[in-house]
Amino acid sequence: MRRANLALVLGTIASGPRSRAEVAAGTGLTRAAVSSLAEQLIAAGLVVEEGPAAPSGKVGRPGTALGLNPAGPGGLGAEIGVRHLGACVVDLRGEVRGWRRREVSNHGREPAAVMADLAHLLHEAVAESGLRPAALTLAVPGLVGGSGGMLQRAANLGWQDVPLAAALRPALRTAGGGLADLPIEADNEANLGGLAERWLGEGPEDFLYVSAEAGVGAAIVVGGRLLRGAGGFAGEFGHVPVHPDGPRCACGAHGCLEQYAGEAAVLRAAGLTGARGDWVALLADRAGVGDPAARAALAGAGTALGTAAAGAVNLLDPAEVVLGGGYARLAPWLLPAMRAELAARVTVRPWSEERLTVSRLGRRGPLLGAAVRVVRAVVADPGPVG
Amino acid sequence: MRRANLALVLGTIASGPRSRAEVAAGTGLTRAAVSSLAEQLIAAGLVVEEGPAAPSGKVGRPGTALGLNPAGPGGLGAEIGVRHLGACVVDLRGEVRGWRRREVSNHGREPAAVMADLAHLLHEAVAESGLRPAALTLAVPGLVGGSGGMLQRAANLGWQDVPLAAALRPALRTAGGGLADLPIEADNEANLGGLAERWLGEGPEDFLYVSAEAGVGAAIVVGGRLLRGAGGFAGEFGHVPVHPDGPRCACGAHGCLEQYAGEAAVLRAAGLTGARGDWVALLADRAGVGDPAARAALAGAGTALGTAAAGAVNLLDPAEVVLGGGYARLAPWLLPAMRAELAARVTVRPWSEERLTVSRLGRRGPLLGAAVRVVRAVVADPGPVG
Q: Member of which family (chains A, B) (predicted)?
């Protein structure tokens, strides 16, 4: 009960600084109980006094506002991309306090080598932040399921059946800095991007988040929560059939969305097959200066994205479709074709083009989501503090 | 608190007859509290004594098993189909106690005329059952949203913006029998069919229920609950694009699933354009005697259903896909092609053909779901009884 009340008080403070009286009013706890719980949270380093609360118009001594402690435990996020690694530390308030990103081609590399690079990056980000992380969440471009963060398959990395936590831990031990004993979880990058959109954006409770890095993924958020599916594999939007008789996909099927809107397909359509480096930046640069091939390739990708999104909208009735990840940067050239498809194909329910939006977080979404998930878990259950 | 405890006791009894001691053990309430609550539920006509409980191996007087009262309040379901009307009464245990179905072509008919026929059918079903219904749920082949059971659009009936409860109530008043004052709710037939599958079948917590009458619909069940979407319009599976450049659909888009697996499309493919009466029975009869055109038409529909279902599986990761409604009867000829498509297109996660199943409830599903929903609501909240 005390633990539940600690979480209740901390959750209230997490919505914005407030006085003990305001916390009491918001939680239904007595003033005395709130004061006692607040002392414990302060002693545990989770909460700080922020100075006088805003005047409430009430008579009496002005209260002191309580806020989440920006020097308290942090959230550590990590990201393994096909062409980059990332590390991020956020404080309890969700502010970014450490950020590292390194371009490195990870396709076909041994997990141990990738983890060694990632561990160094994490160490640097933590050092920059000055915070002590409570746990680590790892974002990966693949299917994560079962216990222990088992990466079942990441086609674009060429990885299969990699126990992510077990693979990262020795590298963290070698890198030093006390990170090796952190709890480690892993999740699909689109899932974490979708959660970031929900947590840091001002999105609705029900939306479809569509993103791309090397592959195409989605997160389905229903009632503010991620729809994970019976086996944890929901969101494989890149393998929704768009043209059933279309080109063969790496997955073995024909005409999957990824064959029209994934990296290789869009580069090929733009006449850039084999281009190296950041495909999103390359296409954005070309389309930005009016390159007709790049623009046509992105319009074609937008049409395919719109067709698949229309099917998902007819099936799921989300309030919004949010374009995130690499697609957010390419949105100026994807949106017109996507909007046209959605308008033509979502006809049996209310729909308007304002329901297709672009993520403000863009490609930072999955890594931010990974880090913020850690601090949200701390706030939701501060545990037996004090 | 007393109301919540009444629901707790009633819910425990609803899982199967049990003694007061078993209810106490299952709920954590004291024997004395259970006895008092049981007396109130018996007095309210919701619960009956069923005779000696099964011996539990415990010393002492054998308990008397408590069960839901089969003479208690009933659930009244109604169904408006394009070619039929239906009425069903179930008792608190979910047993069918009254059943009426009448073939009648409702396309383009005035709602008032349809409601008059339906009211007579409901009256007959209630008289047959000998029960007093607690409420009425109406299943319709269209989009139901907003308050008061507003049917926004039912293309196959030719109806738009029909306030269903308000339209049915005067007909119930005219038909007599005291049904006019019942609470009335309405829902999409596929939603109710999916819920029936969950409640009466032995299905998993996460599945996609696909059904057909005149149109093609689906219900998405996640964690045992219906996914309704932001506006209540989820499940429009018939308008998932299958071939984006395919024939124009009544909805205005091109190549929707309904253009390959809906009534008109399948009849046309079977050389039966304009056939009257029950299309499902007609095709089942023809295919059953080996008619090649009927079999080819159903195989084509199965392929389209499999393509669209594969996209939904990749997106949602359900434990099963359940074929219900008219499709359940046509399953012998739909399944092989559907299974082939699913096997070819669901490749990024575990899948096996046993995950595609056929509803045992078949075309009775939506009407059963409508009636059972009423008694489940009574059990979930018996209200201020006694």
A: Belongs to the ROK (NagC/XylR) family.
One-letter amino acid of A18: R
| Top-tier CATH class for B74-191+366-380 | alpha beta
A246 vs A225: CA distance, rounded Å: 34
User: DSSP secondary-structure letter at B239?
Assistant: G
Maximum distance among all alpha carbons in chain A? 75
For residue B356 the two structure tokens come to 């595609």
Query: Parallel, antiparallel, or unpaired for β B18-19 and B64-68?
Result: antiparallel
Residues of B in contact with A348 (CB under 8 A): 143, 153, 155, 233, 236, 239, 251
Domain B2-68 class in CATH: mainly alpha
Interface contact flag, B253 A310, Cβ < 8 Å: yes
Query: Between these two residues, A133 and A176, which has the higher pLDDT value?
Result: A133
Domains B2-68 and B202-359 equal at CATH topology level: no
List of chain B residues whose C-beta atoms are within 8 Å of the C-beta of residue A142: none
As given in the structure block, the two tokens for residue A14 are: 């997490």
- Report, as an integer, the average pLDDT of B219-230: 94
Q: Which residue has the tokens 């890594």?
A: A367
Q: For position B258, what pLDDT does the model report?
A: 96
Interface contact flag, A251 B312, Cβ < 8 Å: no
- Give the up-direction half-sphere exposure of residue B115: CA atoms within 13 A in the CB hemisphere: 18
Can you tell me which residue has the tokens 């030719």?
A: B158
φ, ψ of residue A54 in degrees (nearest 5): -60, 140
pLDDT band of residue A362 (cuts 50, 70, 90) is very high
Instruction: Work out the minimum CA distance from B55 to partner chain A, whole angstroms.
Output: 38
Strand partners of residue A103: A84
- Tokens coding B128: 């047959």
DSSP B223: T
Note whether B205 contacts A: Cβ–Cβ < 8 A: yes
**Chain B partners within 8 Å of A241 (Cβ):** 242, 307, 310-311, 345
- Give the contacts of A369 (CB within 8 A, at least 6 positions apart): A77, A139, A191, A192, A193, A194, A195, A196, A197, A199
CA B137 – CA A206 distance, rounded (Å): 27
Question: Which CATH architecture is the domain A202-359 placed in?
Answer: 2-Layer Sandwich (3.30)
CB contact under 8 A, B243 and A243: yes
Residues B123 and A380: their CA atoms lie apart, in Å, by 53
What are the chain B neighbours of A258 within 8 Å (beta carbons)?
Answer: none
pLDDT at A55 over 90: no
Contact list in A for residue B230 (CB cut-off 8 A) is: 204-206, 317-319
Name the band, by pLDDT with cuts 50, 70 and 90, for residue B383: confident
ipTM of the complex: 0.91
In order of A107, B29, B153, B351, the CA distances from B348 in angstroms are 18, 48, 37, 9
**Which of B144, B237, B239 to substitute to test the interface with A, most A CBs within 10 Å?**
B239
- The answer to whether the Cβ–Cβ distance between B218 and A253 falls below 8 Å is no
Residues of chain A contacting B314 with CB distance shorter than 8 Å: 236-237, 239-240
pLDDT score for A53: 60
Over residues B39-62, mean pLDDT:
76
* Best residue in B188, B233, B248 for a mutation probing chain A (most A CBs within 10 Å): B233
Q: Which residues of A218-243 are buried (b: 16+ CB within 10 A; e: fewer)?
A: bbbbbeeebbbbbbbbbbbbbbbbbb
Whole-Å CA distances, A176 to A120, A126, A129, A172, A382: 9, 11, 16, 6, 26
Whether B311 and A316 lie within 8 Å, measured CB to CB: no
The residue ranges of every structural domain in chain B are: 2-68, 74-191+366-380, 202-359
Running DSSP on this structure, what letter comes out for residue A248?
A: B
Residue of B nearest to A340 (CA): B253
Interface touch B231/A315, C-beta < 8 Å:
no
For tokens 């056939």, the residue is B275
Higher local confidence (pLDDT), B344 or A203: B344
